Amino acid sequence: MAVARKALLAGVGGALVLALAVLFFAWSGLYNVAASQPHWALTRWFLDFGLRRSVATHSASITPPKLDDKNLVILGAGHFDAGCAPCHGAPGGHSDPIVDRMLPAPPELNRAASNWSTEQLFWIVKHGLKFTGMPAWVAQQRDDEVWAVVAFLRALPQMSASQYRLFAIGDPEPRPNDGAEIARNGMTMEALTRCVRCHRGDARPRSALVPRLAGQSQAYVERALRDFASGSRLSGIMEPIAVALDAAAITALSAYYAGAPNPAPSAPPIESNADQIARGKDIATKGVAESGVPPCLVCHGDARAPSFPKLDGQYAPYIVGQIDLWKRGLRTKSGYGAIMGTIASRLTDEQARDVAAYFASVAAPTAQKLKPPIPPSRHGGRRAR
Amino acid sequence: MRDRQRFLRIARAASACLVLAGCEGVQSTLAPTGPQAQHIAQLFWVMVAGSGAIMLMVALLTAIALFAPARRRAFLAGDTVVLAGGLIFPVVTLSALLVYGLVMLGAGPGRMAASPVGIEVAGERWWWRVVYRDAGAAVESANELRIPLGRAVEIELSSDNVIHSFWAPRLAGKLDMIPGRKTVLTLSAETAGVSRGQCAEYCGGAHALMAFNVVAMPPNEYDEWRLREFQPAQEPTTQQTRAGKALFLSHGCGACHTIRGTPAAGRLGPDLTHLGGRISIGAAILATNEASIAQWIKHNQDIKPGNLMPAFDIFSESELLALSRYLASLR
Hints:
The complex is a heterodimer.
Chain A: H1 2-28, H2 41-58, H3 70-88, H4 97-100, H5 112-115, H6 118-127, H7 143-155, H8 161-168, H9 179-185, H10 218-230, H11 238-243, H12 247-259, H13 274-286, H14 297-300, H15 316-327, H16 335-344, H17 349-361
Helix pairs in contact in A: 3-7, 6-7, 10-12, 13-17, 15-16, 15-17
Chain B: H1 2-23, H2 35-67, H3 70-73, H4 79-106, E1 117-123, E2 128-134, E3 137-142, E4 144-148, E5 153-159, E6 164-167, E7 175-177, E8 183-187, E9 193-199, E10 211-217, H5 219-229, H6 239-250, E11 280-281, E12 286-287, H7 290-303, H8 317-328
Parallel strand pairs in B: 1-5, 4-10
Antiparallel strand pairs in B: 1-2, 2-3, 5-8, 6-7, 6-9, 9-10, 11-12
């Protein structure tokens, strides 16, 4: 009895001393947190082991959706180039000496698809990693966006540098080669706020998950950018971009897109057919009385106020995706969003697909030149900070 | 002592409130304004008087049985009393009451004028669609019935969603509105004025806020009103109301609402052609005026949670004023 008590006392005392010693060591500041000094092998192993186990455990219950969709890959590529490549690098790029001095150094992601499972990649992109500099996804509710990045990461290892450039940046444009211009504006190719990376200018976006902006009403584009900037419209992709735009830039940009000619209607999704488009047209023109769905065209037709978006020729997958966001209550924070949220919640998934196929099939009227298009401001697109 | 006085005062005030609410209100079945409701009220008072008398009698007999000396209460054990009080009396009373009740409730419609005024009322969630027909033309209103004094009014009740119940207590009894069926309620008013009705069958979220007004009007006023009601909406006359109309048409209001004489032809929500001429908006929830219309447009989900109209929190102050002023001007 007495022996057991002694052993217990010794144990407790020992633990206390150890804890105090650890606390003293931390207090003394002798441990070197300098990023200029690499970790000890043991520390590195321990941190790496803990990180891998944590990711594995936390991602265990995730079920990935279908990811081999070019639209997802291209959307993911566009965001990757702005949001991830600055630290992780990109095919054909060069490493950034500042980033190289981070500890841990952000891994090049060419091999990410093989190092981590799809579910684990999703979890890391969505939640970020403590003490590594890896941030969490800006809009935690937007799993659909995170999956786009994951789809891209899985496709990345097979991507050539030129293919990556096409997906992420678009058609090669002449880089500034005038010394004075570079001196003033830098290599603008990499600016976060390059809209054309995904939306393009007056051509159709490469990904059908990206809305076509050419010919859209100016008031609507302005409102969308303000909603993204204020966080009332959630998006891990658009929020950082909109926040970087000042009021003048938002006005100039929306004027540019309103004046840009709207190209030919986007092809309806492959599985859509004449029947589906006809059903969609019925909903758009007459509504669905029994479930309280008003006709779409009263707000989205030609007599609409400019603050309502035009949907003619818009990509069907984009429309379906947005209706889904409304149904999930993720786009209902703004006054306009609350209106559409009510209506979207009354649409069945099939009706949403029908109506999207209809709008995708409608030829947008050739750009009405209400105002002369204002050319994009050279400085408007620059990051303000 | 003081507590007791206060308690008494509160009790008196509370009972006074109850009495007032029960008898004086615009929605009281005890303040009938038409023969059908008078019959119901009369039936009620006869029942109250009769059952009161019977209760007194039973109490008296019970008291005799409990407290009277044995020889005084002996008669209660006699066969005659048991037979008369336990069998003959209930049979006679209840049969008489049944006949009286049937005659009462069956009365009215049969004796009404041969050419009743027809109104159709459809129960919606959560408002009343009111249709007036006239030689092929049909116009819609909402949440308000206008009826001429002294004439029989035949109200055809229907619903295409859930069961509602039409109840205007000062005019008639309740009648259910059953999907797939048409029911007909006949009533008439003898006193001019406004009385209030309410959905009397739980029909979902905003059921408690599904009310309506019945306005009984002298025949000449009614004819004038009816003439106006069949006209399309007034054109806005001021710059502000014209702006209001443009806002109405460009911001999607016409997807659900009709204003006759404009492109707005939606049928999901109430017809607004003569909104400004109605007493109330939101199914007899708010008095109609510019301010309440503006409130409704912007905050209807707070005023009447769960109603099927989304809140339109998208207008600037001046836009909202123009819009509500235009709607209020539609008399």
